[in-house]
């Protein structure tokens, strides 16, 4: 019994070719639409950057905008590196003080009234006491009204502040350059200054401010020819470190390959995407900013995600269900998100949602 293989008719071949062409046409249109969407989003971001960095009303091309943005970010990074050790949390810093002013205020309150000897090496305390209490070193009270003040320089070692309380104590060589001058006590309003109530042989730091490796110290002592109840003699000096050292400690955290951070508006639109995201989801930050997170979720998971979103708006924090996210390579990956809502520090209104997205293997 023979079997014959029948060739497909010309009509069926044409039908198959038409279907194939239609699929190719749909794919091409989809790619063009996606490309147009990315171009529009890119142009929107360029226009926003241009409005921020433009120094005049003249329209800039894209490359000029990007160059100006890079220059601006480099400048901001340099400023941030210089100021990172003096940065103060806004939630407990008075709003009317700058970071530098508040830092100096905290330094002064931390050191004011502290005996200078407590900050010095023990073997140098006797020499400092001799310098401050030697009558020959101090000017005669009758000459205090003269404009000329003799300057003195003393080199001592002072205790260095530490970042952690468990750190060992270290000392830095400091040069004190200053002069003696009178100090009225008590004050005009009748309130005793702290240094006026101390013993005669005590030497305390009455004020201290530091800027650029230097600082102002006032150490009090009593001149033998002057009554303690009326006037004291203080040594006012500028302290300069012999070798200034700036703290540049930064915590280096190894980013995981299965986790990235994003920030969303309350309507769940992307506002921020960290540097780890592109290796996981394939999208660069500028490709998703302004788009809705729901555009990337599997249709079967939308109801569950919407329920989690509603629960988040009620509680302010939580953990999402497991859901599928469509990567740029058109692959589905399973994610779970830990999120919380941040609130404005002044009016307590919700601002945005911070998410930590973890790949579920």
UniProtKB/TrEMBL annotation:
Pfam families for this protein: HLH, PAS_11
Region (Disordered), start-end ranges: 1-32
Gene3D superfamilies with a match to the protein in the record: Helix-loop-helix DNA-binding domain, PAS domain
Keywords: Biological rhythms, DNA-binding, Nucleus, Repeat, Transcription, Transcription regulation
Cross-referenced InterPro entries: bHLH_dom (IPR011598), CLOCK-like (IPR047230), HLH_DNA-bd_sf (IPR036638), Nuc_translocat (IPR001067), PAS (IPR000014), PAS-like_dom_sf (IPR035965)
SUPFAM superfamilies attached to this UniProt entry: HLH, helix-loop-helix DNA-binding domain, PYP-like sensor domain (PAS domain)
Gene Ontology cellular component terms for the protein in this record: CLOCK-BMAL transcription complex; cytoplasm
Entry keyword annotation includes DNA-binding: yes
GO terms, molecular function: DNA-binding transcription factor activity, RNA polymerase II-specific; protein dimerization activity; RNA polymerase II cis-regulatory region sequence-specific DNA binding
Residue span(s) of domain BHLH: 26-76
Domain PAS: from-to ranges: 269-316
Source species, domain of life: Eukaryota
GO annotation terms (biological process): circadian regulation of gene expression; positive regulation of transcription by RNA polymerase II
UniProt-recorded name of the protein: Clock
Organism from which the protein derives: Cherax quadricarinatus
Lineage of source species: Eukaryota, Metazoa, Ecdysozoa, Arthropoda, Crustacea
């Amino acid at each position: 019994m023979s079997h014959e293989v029948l060739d497909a008719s010309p009509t069926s071949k044409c039908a198959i070719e038409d279907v194939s062409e239609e699929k190719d046409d749909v794919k091409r249109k989809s790619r063009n639409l996606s490309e147009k969407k990315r171009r529009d989003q890119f142009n929107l971001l360029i226009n926003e950057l241009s409005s921020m960095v433009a120094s005049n009303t003249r329209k800039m091309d894209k490359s000029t905008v990007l160059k100006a943005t890079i220059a601006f970010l480099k400048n901001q990074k340099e400023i941030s590196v210089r100021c990172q050790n003096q940065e103060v949390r806004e939630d407990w810093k008075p709003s009317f003080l700058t970071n530098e002013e508040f830092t100096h205020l905290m330094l002064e309150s931390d050191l004011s009234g502290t005996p200078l000897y407590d900050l010095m090496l023990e073997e140098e305390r006797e020499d400092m006491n001799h310098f401050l209490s030697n009558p020959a070193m101090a000017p005669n009270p009758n000459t205090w009204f003269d404009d000329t003040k003799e300057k003195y320089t003393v080199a001592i070692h002072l205790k260095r502040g530490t970042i952690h309380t468990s750190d060992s104590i270290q000392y830095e060589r400091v040069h004190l350059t200053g002069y003696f001058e009178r100090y009225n006590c008590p004050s005009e309003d009748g309130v005793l200054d702290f240094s006026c109530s101390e013993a005669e042989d005590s030497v305390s730091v009455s004020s201290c401010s530091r800027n650029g490796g230097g600082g102002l110290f006032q150490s009090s002592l009593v001149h033998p020819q002057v009554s303690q109840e009326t006037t004291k003699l203080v040594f006012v000096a500028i302290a300069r470190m012999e070798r200034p050292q700036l703290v540049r400690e930064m915590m280096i955290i190894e980013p995981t390959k299965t986790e990235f951070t994003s920030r969303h508006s309350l309507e769940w639109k992307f506002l921020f995407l960290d540097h780890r995201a592109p290796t996981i989801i394939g999208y660069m930050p500028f490709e998703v900013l302004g788009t809705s997170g729901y555009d990337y979720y599997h249709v079967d998971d939308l109801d569950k995600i919407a329920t989690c979103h509603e629960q988040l708006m009620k509680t302010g924090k939580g953990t999402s269900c497991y859901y599928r996210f469509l990567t740029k390579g058109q692959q589905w990956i399973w994610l779970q998100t830990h999120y919380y809502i941040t609130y404005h520090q002044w009016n307590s209104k919700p601002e945005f949602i911070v998410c930590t997205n973890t790949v579920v293997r």
